[in-house]
Design goal:
Blueprint (H helix, E strand, L loop, with lengths): L2 H17 L3 H7 L3 H4 L16 H9 L5 E4 L7 E4 L8 H28 L38
Antiparallel strand pairs: 1-2
């Protein structure tokens, strides 16, 4: 899609949301819409801490029925609509809460152990590994490049 086509489709989607129209139909009827636009048919449920910071800030600032457009990159339109707010039952989230509390407790115990023992850990050592650049040619058995010489016998 050209930027103009994307803006026109975004405006049509925005108008459909504003006036209660069928957004799926607007996307389907667009010449490029079905090929490049993804519409979640069912609302997604999420809680704080599960979205990227920019998206989470915008989503939790909305009131029911409101929507917002996020532009993450040129030519990309992301719309978020708050369908409803709800709280999960304690039974649903108790294991999640338990795991978070265990992780916090373990972290506190680890910090206390570090203080008592006087040890330290290089966090960068355990970070993601950096890719090793590929060599132009493979080294010889000794780690040195072998020179090819027609006069010398080959091993």
């Amino acid at each position: 899609m050209t930027p103009e086509q994307a803006k026109a489709l975004a405006d049509a989607v925005r108008a459909a949301y504003a006036y209660g129209g069928d957004v799926g139909k607007v996307i389907h009827d667009s010449p490029h819409g079905p090929d490049v636009v993804q519409l979640d048919p069912e609302p997604l449920a999420f809680q704080r801490g599960e979205l990227p910071a920019k998206m989470e800030q915008a989503a939790f600032a909305l009131k029911e029925g409101e929507w917002i457009e996020l532009n993450d990159a040129p030519g990309t339109f992301v719309f978020i609509q708050l369908v409803k707010r709800s709280r999960r039952d304690l039974n649903e989230v108790s294991t999640q809460i338990e795991k978070k509390l265990q992780a916090l407790k373990l972290k506190e115990e680890l910090e206390e152990l570090k203080k008592k023992s006087g040890t330290w850990m290089d966090e960068a050592y355990f970070g993601p590994s950096t890719p090793v650049p590929a060599r132009a040619s493979a080294p010889g058995k000794s780690g040195m490049r072998e020179e090819k010489n027609e006069d010398k016998p080959q091993r």
